[in-house]
Structures are given as C-alpha cells and as structure tokens.
Amino acid sequence: MALPRAARTQRRTRIQQEKEEQILEAALQVFSAFGFRGATVDQIAELAGMSKPNLLYYFRTKEAMHRALIERVLDTWLDPLRALDAEGNPVSEIRSYIRRKLEMSRDFPRESRLFANEMLHGAPHVEDELKGPLKSLMDEKADVIRAWMRAGKISRCDPYHLIFSIWATTQHYADFDVQVRAVLGDNAGEGRFEDAARFLEELYLKGLGIAI
Predict the structure, then answer these.
(1) How far apart are CA 201 and CA 95, in angstroms?
(2) Residue 164 has pLDDT above 90, yes or no
(3) Which of 1, 51, 73, 87 lies 20 to 30 Å (CA to CA) from residue 183?
(4) Measured torsion, CA atoms of residues 147, 105, 212, 84, in degrees rounded to the nearest 10
(5) Average pLDDT of the residues in 117-132
(6) Which range, 110-124, 133-147, 177-191, is most confident?
(7) Over the range 70-89, which residues count as b (16 or more CB within 10 Å of their CB) and which as e?
(8) Does the predicted model carry a pTM greater than 0.90?
(9) Which of 167, 26, 33 minimizes the C-alpha distance to 100?
(10) Which CATH number applies to 5-68?
C-alpha cells in the first residue's frame, strides 16, 4: 500500500494522521470530479485548506495521493466479496452480497466514480493489485460458487461472470445515479435502492434456479 511521505519518515502523530485524512478527503473530492488527469495539486491543497508545500510534506506527488485513495477504495470494495461464506446458505449469501454492494453505491458514490475512472483509463496505478490480490480473491470465491453448484444448491453458471454482473448492476446506481434519478423522476428517493435490491435479488436468485 502506498504510504504518505510523513509515515515513511517518522511515527505519525495524531495531528499528522488527521492532516493525511484531511488531504485524502479533499483529493477524493477533486479526483472524483475531474479525474486523475484533470485534477491538480493546487486544487487539492485549496480544498484541504493548506498550502501546497505543506500538502507535499504528507504526499510528495499527485500520484501518491491518487494511489493511496485507489488502494483504499479497492480494499473497501472487496470487503463484501471477502465475506461470501462457503459454509453459508447461497440464498442468504447472495442476497447479502447484492445488498452490501448496493449500500456501497449509495454511501460511497465518489469512491465508485474514482475507481471507475481508474478502470476506464487502463488501471495504470493499480494494475498489480488487480492481477495479484484481486485475482486471488476472485479465484477463491469462484471455488465457493462452484462448490454450491456441485452440491446442487444453485444452477451451473460461470462464477466469474456472475460476480462481474453483480458488480455491474449494483455499481450502476452509483456511477449512473444522475441517469437513474432522471428516469425515475418523483420515484427517485432513497427507496430506489431498496427497489433495486429486491429486483436484483429476484433476478439473480431465480436465474440461479433458487426458489424464492
């Protein structure tokens, strides 16, 4: 994981930790709005309420801030997948996964846009993470899904494409929220996430041959 400069030079104090979080919060806002190429250190420093030299004490470059954010987002994004339990009931496990992914789309839209933008540009800052830890986790959870198939608990399918499709349908509500709200109009309140959860649960569970 990319460490801020201050963390590499000395043990961080509480104030330093707070400053780093202040910087990363500002960087998240700027990167999610303008993308990596459009964002500048000056913009981030201004939003963080500190001078550019002070900011660069904590994070030497724009790339360092961006990588720290991307790695944090990727780690958070994968928590629901890590929780997929081989010993659990596929119905409750898949339902829980769908709902947790939708909750993340609802609660972390800026993080979702940041990550989507990184993927659209070829993942230059986290390609090693995708081919390493992400790939290993996906292989592990694909084996979980295959075990459910062998036990006759769900219909046969490609486990990787099942996970990809859940990612796509749930993150749509973060990355394309403006479009969703425009189409739903007066029905575009917070209830849209519950409506989406019920629809996606039925879509996937029935598609996997599970009676609900």
Answers:
(1) 6
(2) yes
(3) 73
(4) 20
(5) 88
(6) 133-147
(7) bbbbbeebbebbeebeeeee
(8) no
(9) 167
(10) 1.10.10.60
Which has the closest alpha carbon to 45: 36, 34, 32, 58?
58
Question: CATH number of 78-207: 1.10.357.10, 3.90.79.10, 1.10.3470.10, 2.60.120.560?
Answer: 1.10.357.10
Give the pLDDT confidence of 59-83 residue by residue, as tens digits.
Answer: 999 999 999 999 899 889 899 999 9
Under 8 Å between Cβ of 5 and 65: no
* C-alpha of 102 from chain center: 11
Count of CB atoms within 10 A of residue 26's CB?
Answer: 20
Kindly tell me if the per-residue pLDDT of 32 is higher than 50: yes
**Cβ–Cβ contacts within 10 Å for residue 186, how many?**
5
Where are the chain's structural domains?
5-68, 78-207
| Distance, CA of 60 to CA of 41 (rounded, Å) | 10
